[in-house]
DNA sequence: CGCAAGTGTTGCGCTTGACGAAACAGAGTT
DNA sequence: AACTCTGTTTCGTCAAGCGCAACACTTGCG
């Protein structure tokens, strides 16, 4: 029974709520914006944008920055986020292991799940080398060009695989762009139990990922370590792969995998 | 220029947006709820509640649980939260220091600010001993019964203090329940430059906190270390106090405190 | 197994909430 | 000082959002 989202997606949702939430998404993307900028993004009158912002502000989902009339996301989001993250069992179970892996490798550790034809990043822990790293949490990332994506796809059978994939856009000269190449790669991932992506999503980015399994052995998430290619070179990848596979196995055990 | 929130708070905001955001707050509080429950909470017709939920679902701010027609907060909140936390200057500046303090003490480190008569927890880093720690981020926590709360109150003058406090509920036999006791305690906090709370919010919970100051020397946040009382006994509290005071001073320096 | 109760979902007509236009206030620039 | 641009407020209009009624589905009980 999924008609609620379908109705909303089809434009039959509540227009002013849709607009207000679009403001939140604009602010998430731009950092901060003024009323006129928001009205331009939404295609509404600035008095409309102003009233919508006022309502969001009264719920503390946006707040004004020091500058006159400029807005950014507010701390009210944190209360909602706290409620959300605390309930994601997977993230909760994985957090201490993610932290250990980040400490061991010094790089950025992520947990991602398959969602709507992409990898949705649920958690991120940065290692000591990874100051100011890009925040992936909440983002939908292409499957075919990332180690997390390959791991998540490797848990699918052929029918589900084709359903999960749309086009295979090219991001760098090393991006996999044909289905047959991707199938071969996924066979390798299944064989070796992990995935590696070097310069496939963006040049200079290396990531390794391993599957997180549930009690039945299904791939329910992927755990990755990523960093710049100059730090994660060939000489270190083997070691990081081993650490990642072990950490993901540990998370899997906590979810009931391998228990008999 | 704060008229936006005032307008919203006065009920002149956008009613349907106000309702939709109230749904998010209900779900944050209850965990999950059905359409009829939400319509009861909001005092609207269930078809109204259903349409509002549909719009929230289309933006992935709510999602259906496995049960028929029951909803909870969705992962779309995480994207907004990621954007929020990364941009809170204080959290950003404090994060590496929080991490170090968590590593040094092995316990849970929090950053909190004063907000609406309570301590609002903005950030949390768990140390190696702190498995399965409670997630405080986004929550409003009582001031009089926590070390963070005492630190935040210690930065107020008498008028602001009374304005900030409501009743002083009893949580344990050690909770401070009279204003004069609290004033004495806040004098001690000002004198010694830190606060300690043992078994005051809940039995078995010990926390120490130190003030984070801005360039003017005002207390703008509080940084705390907390853990179970069996690990944070009298023998360790002095050491952890010293580490916390030093870490909070480091954050204060980053915010411009003490620079001449 | 059939029925009742309760919940979720949909369509429709009405009304009122949300909208854009116009105007004003303030800040920055020339 | 004048102009430009932004944020903010007020007001009349109308279409979006509302409640109502009905239907579909699930669950529990006799």
TrEMBL record, chains A, B:
<dbReference type="GO" id="GO:0006071">
    <property type="term" value="P:glycerol metabolic process"/>
</dbReference>
<feature type="domain" description="HTH iclR-type">
    <location>
        <begin position="14"/>
        <end position="75"/>
    </location>
</feature>
<dbReference type="InterPro" id="IPR029016">
    <property type="entry name" value="GAF-like_dom_sf"/>
</dbReference>
<dbReference type="InterPro" id="IPR036388">
    <property type="entry name" value="WH-like_DNA-bd_sf"/>
</dbReference>
<dbReference type="Pfam" id="PF01614">
    <property type="entry name" value="IclR_C"/>
</dbReference>
<keyword id="KW-0805">Transcription regulation</keyword>
<dbReference type="GO" id="GO:0003700">
    <property type="term" value="F:DNA-binding transcription factor activity"/>
</dbReference>
<dbReference type="InterPro" id="IPR014757">
    <property type="entry name" value="Tscrpt_reg_IclR_C"/>
</dbReference>
<dbReference type="GO" id="GO:0003677">
    <property type="term" value="F:DNA binding"/>
</dbReference>
<keyword id="KW-0319">Glycerol metabolism</keyword>
<keyword id="KW-0804">Transcription</keyword>
<protein>
    <recommendedName>
        <fullName>Glycerol operon regulatory protein</fullName>
    </recommendedName>
</protein>
<comment type="function">
    <text>May be an activator protein for the gylABX operon.</text>
</comment>
<dbReference type="InterPro" id="IPR005471">
    <property type="entry name" value="Tscrpt_reg_IclR_N"/>
</dbReference>
<dbReference type="InterPro" id="IPR050707">
    <property type="entry name" value="HTH_MetabolicPath_Reg"/>
</dbReference>
<keyword id="KW-0238">DNA-binding</keyword>
<dbReference type="InterPro" id="IPR036390">
    <property type="entry name" value="WH_DNA-bd_sf"/>
</dbReference>
<feature type="domain" description="IclR-ED">
    <location>
        <begin position="76"/>
        <end position="257"/>
    </location>
</feature>
<dbReference type="Pfam" id="PF09339">
    <property type="entry name" value="HTH_IclR"/>
</dbReference>
<dbReference type="GO" id="GO:0045892">
    <property type="term" value="P:negative regulation of DNA-templated transcription"/>
</dbReference>
């Amino acid at each position: 029974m999924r008609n609620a989202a379908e109705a909303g997606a089809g434009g039959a949702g509540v227009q002013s709520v849709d607009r207000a939430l679009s403001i939140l998404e604009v602010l998430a993307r731009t950092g901060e914006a003024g009323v006129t900028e928001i009205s331009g993004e939404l295609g509404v009158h600035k008095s409309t944008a102003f009233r919508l912002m006022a309502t969001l502000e009264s719920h503390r989902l946006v707040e004004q920055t020091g500058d006159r009339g400029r807005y950014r996301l507010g701390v009210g989001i944190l209360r909602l986020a706290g409620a959300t993250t605390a309930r994601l069992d997977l993230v909760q179970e994985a957090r201490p292991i993610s932290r250990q892996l980040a400490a061991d490798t010094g790089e950025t550790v992520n947990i991602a799940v398959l969602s709507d034809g992409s990898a949705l990043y649920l958690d991120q822990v940065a290692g000591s080398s990874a100051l100011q790293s890009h925040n992936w949490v909440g983002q939908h990332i292409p499957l075919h060009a990332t180690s997390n994506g390959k791991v998540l796809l490797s848990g699918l059978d052929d029918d589900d695989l084709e359903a999960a994939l749309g086009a295979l856009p090219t991001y760098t000269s090393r991006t996999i762009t044909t289905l047959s190449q991707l199938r071969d790669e996924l066979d390798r991932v299944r064989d070796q139990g992990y995935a590696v992506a070097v310069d496939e999503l963006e040049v200079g980015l290396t990531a390794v990922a391993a599957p997180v399994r549930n009690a039945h052995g299904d791939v329910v998430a992927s755990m990755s370590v990523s960093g710049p290619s100059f730090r994660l070179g060939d000489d270190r990848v083997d070691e990081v792969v081993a650490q990642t596979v072990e950490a993901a196995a540990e998370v899997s055990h906590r979810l009931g995998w391998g228990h008999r």
